[in-house]
Structure of N-acetyl-gamma-glutamyl-phosphate reductase:
Amino acid sequence: MATKIKAGIVGGAGYTGGETIRLLLNHPDVALTFVHSRSNAGNPLYSAHADLRGDTELTFTDSLAHTVDVVFLCLGHGESKKFLQENPFPASVRIIDLSQDFRLGETVGDRTFVYGLPELNRDAIRQASNIANPGCFATAIQLGLLPLAKTGALGEVYATGITGSTGAGQKLQDTTHFTWRANNISAYKTLTHQHLREIKRSVAQLQPDFAAAINFVPWRGDFARGIFVSSVISTALSLEEVIKVYRDFYQGHPFTVVYDDVVDMKQVVNTNKCLVGLEKEGDKVVVHTAIDNLLKGASGHAVQNMNLMFGLEETAGLKLKSIAF
Amino acid sequence: MATKIKAGIVGGAGYTGGETIRLLLNHPDVALTFVHSRSNAGNPLYSAHADLRGDTELTFTDSLAHTVDVVFLCLGHGESKKFLQENPFPASVRIIDLSQDFRLGETVGDRTFVYGLPELNRDAIRQASNIANPGCFATAIQLGLLPLAKTGALGEVYATGITGSTGAGQKLQDTTHFTWRANNISAYKTLTHQHLREIKRSVAQLQPDFAAAINFVPWRGDFARGIFVSSVISTALSLEEVIKVYRDFYQGHPFTVVYDDVVDMKQVVNTNKCLVGLEKEGDKVVVHTAIDNLLKGASGHAVQNMNLMFGLEETAGLKLKSIAF
Amino acid sequence: MATKIKAGIVGGAGYTGGETIRLLLNHPDVALTFVHSRSNAGNPLYSAHADLRGDTELTFTDSLAHTVDVVFLCLGHGESKKFLQENPFPASVRIIDLSQDFRLGETVGDRTFVYGLPELNRDAIRQASNIANPGCFATAIQLGLLPLAKTGALGEVYATGITGSTGAGQKLQDTTHFTWRANNISAYKTLTHQHLREIKRSVAQLQPDFAAAINFVPWRGDFARGIFVSSVISTALSLEEVIKVYRDFYQGHPFTVVYDDVVDMKQVVNTNKCLVGLEKEGDKVVVHTAIDNLLKGASGHAVQNMNLMFGLEETAGLKLKSIAF
Amino acid sequence: MATKIKAGIVGGAGYTGGETIRLLLNHPDVALTFVHSRSNAGNPLYSAHADLRGDTELTFTDSLAHTVDVVFLCLGHGESKKFLQENPFPASVRIIDLSQDFRLGETVGDRTFVYGLPELNRDAIRQASNIANPGCFATAIQLGLLPLAKTGALGEVYATGITGSTGAGQKLQDTTHFTWRANNISAYKTLTHQHLREIKRSVAQLQPDFAAAINFVPWRGDFARGIFVSSVISTALSLEEVIKVYRDFYQGHPFTVVYDDVVDMKQVVNTNKCLVGLEKEGDKVVVHTAIDNLLKGASGHAVQNMNLMFGLEETAGLKLKSIAF
């Protein structure tokens, strides 16, 4: 590749900002041009992300270069739309937004957004100028449901998911205090998690008459990274048929791997992969899915979308060594 | 109490044996008379349970005193029945079996067993000579379902539960290797966990026509102690009505506490308590239950049963300081 | 015991306040009379300490009963002295202060304080009206050094210690954020920890000419409860002689147990015990000590002191079930 | 690079074997030619390393290709020498041995080994045919001591280090049982760790008259990956002078980063970096070092040595995304 893609990051001091920096610094086809953070402007990146000391001397900036090719918005929910209204980039600059501001069809100025789930919308992503990057739980749940939705036979879903503390961001909170969270499990947003909206939208894209409930109980886990979801669904298909449906659906998608077996979460931590494990008992199929909430659930997914938008190899810069242990 | 109850423990070197020792050593009305362990005979208890050094000089024995009042069997599944066949205690000795050997109505010799869930069978337990102590997941799930079953209106259940590594015992296994289990989540025995049998039996005791499925997905958690279960059930009752049903059911039961709110698992770790948290959204009630798998899920439950059998205060020796943090 | 000791707690919403509540609620000889907390006044104790729900309906108060027998001050460092100045209890009310305000001989009004380390000052504690309860690291380190100091031959000390997150209190901080602290180790206050002052004072009490350095490197651990310290000291004594020195020193002290072997921290978590493990190689003895930082390191130690002050069994209310696993 | 280096791995089913596979699969200049494992021959790599499913279809083999350029020996201590005796590769095949078999000058056949610590022996490594890869604790401790040794003024060292469970390998052991190790700290091999031999050898290489003791207390930590060491040393140098000594020593070494401050371990987990944090108080300098025990402590270090031996960029294939959180 002759010329590198010039990329900027807005909101670079948070967790997804940090992960996006880490990925882009090592991406073979990208030049990280600016990392915007109003509160950290002038400080080296490693002042906020200590692990980067020795890797880069780049500093945070509070000015925005408009000559970049792509901007990653790593802002809080509600802040991305406001930011783009106040800082209208030229139309030639592509936007990848990691917040939930544009996942349900919202627009800003002339910008319309493609929902950036490559396993669902890869062709559209390749043509897109703006991407609404999926939510973390939304990714893990959808990748467990979409193949069945494509058969037109997805019924009511009962899903329980557990997430690492990084899903709650870096703000200090009672529920991310080490003393409280260590060795603890708790439920939150029972049946009301905001990601259900984007999940239902994607399901309806494949199965327009889907009208059943998706009952989702999210749990807080006592680990920092990862999401694990088990979804229970009634189906008339045999396990072999279910496996074929999933394998066909994910054929050619490099990051989503289907198992005819259980899976464990740590296999994907620090990678952009999604594991899908399938089991069946009686008339119930159980789909286990596992992702790293900050990578396939956020920043890795965003870089995957960038790769597609710019015609790069889909896996460029994303062949990451898993933590493994 | 003038005379102390003389208690023996069989299988005292394992986790539930250790917990039973810890409880009985501090129990105001019990004299721990023998701790049987063939493989450890002659060694001090603290050779297997290092935390007991300084607390007791008692040693394991391979002989069985028949003059005790009660024997706790802390053996592996399948071993209790065999043990009682080979070592028939006098009829006057009461048996509390922590295995699953007698939970479904099985007998040995003249001994018949009462299922030792005080919240369900307290009066029968008070009269019982032999107790089949409930399973850990079985306890957590039943305490979440029984009040609804008593209304006669329990329907299909979708439950996900997570358990600490102590639930898998002290045998070295791939799934209890620290390197694998730390920061990991995995599913096992999906929809086929053996505790479903005793759960269905208890539900049928209250709601004889119950014919719906109890879909249970167990997960391995990355902590040592505790169980957390979220069960999703359709109901026509309002949240207020559900809360009343649960509060009425557990009225007078000292260890089971009903919340009209979420609960977190660590509140009960190292105690004999069960927390029941209730939420409702649409037509679904979600019941969260939390116990310590080794106490209310095993040894604490067993001592609670002993207290009832011998007419002691139900909470004697079981007012335990929680780990809290 | 005919009449129960009436006890009050000031600063009952924090970690050491919570632990003191948990201990006193179950103490056979104590009536918990008030729990003072300005910010929580009127709320039930379980609003701050969720695990107490179901155990007590007591509420926090902002008024101070002067008719109690003993008050535990569970306040931040610097606040105890101020509190006693503003709220002078009658001389008949004994004070046990868990802060560091009175550990170096400080006084307030007529009150002078005995340093509440029973293994060092048991007779004085029995006569004391006011106790300065030792610090957590100070307890773990001193119990590893004092027997050698008593021989008059303690030399330079190199100690490294690790503490759980509860040692940092319940205030939200970057270093107690779960995401940062999980699976992490870090050093802080290298060679300058404030507990060195009280340690040196106790050493000098036994070995007045001690002039060597105590080099202490504290680490933050990725667990909630517990302290583990390894101290390396040159000595001319053989291992057998060292062991005898320690065993003699702790003879008759119920909570401190000497091993001629290594020890592991979790054996003492949720107990009031201190383990002392001794090893020797060449001319160096290595003393490993382990305590629960909130119990033998704070609230349990305070209750032990209360027991001594009021002529109770030293272990009353402190025979706690360890977490064990 | 026109032709890729052909690399083989012997002992590919263990932890260091797995990490070496992960690194070489993504290395731009290497073709992973064979992965030898007698017990797993014929099975896919992902049968032993589940995270590799979807990444490679390579299988384990029990035959050894002699046409490779380099072989990594990931065998247990004592097995490497035996393996090379029984399987003499042609002299043209370079060997990188991760065991301790050749770290003290041992030879096998005509093969002599260079101690593979690039910060000490980079020029010799570039010329070497055979590398003895350093131990994990040895790496962390040496990188904290060598700059002072080079000044000729290193004195007695008091070091405490903590290691993750992966340091103990994948064999099931009591001390790697999750139930025991979670939330626990313990000491082992106090003052007698086998890595002291190679540490003293390297120190003597820079300071031939070094005769003082290196007192090292290793601890087992409750995490899977990482090593953190704090070393206390008397020195006449000021902190500024010490920092200059360390910065000069590591000038041009890409993986070792010197801080004039504390460091925390998790910054380096899943990377090949070593952090060196320096503090001073009185006449004592405290050197904190942190590495990932499986990377800079084993497989990453081995690949770094391979890069040097074959004239590649020293960091090729080793710019790894840290776990960060």
About this structure: Chain A touches chain B through 43 residues (CB under 8 Å).
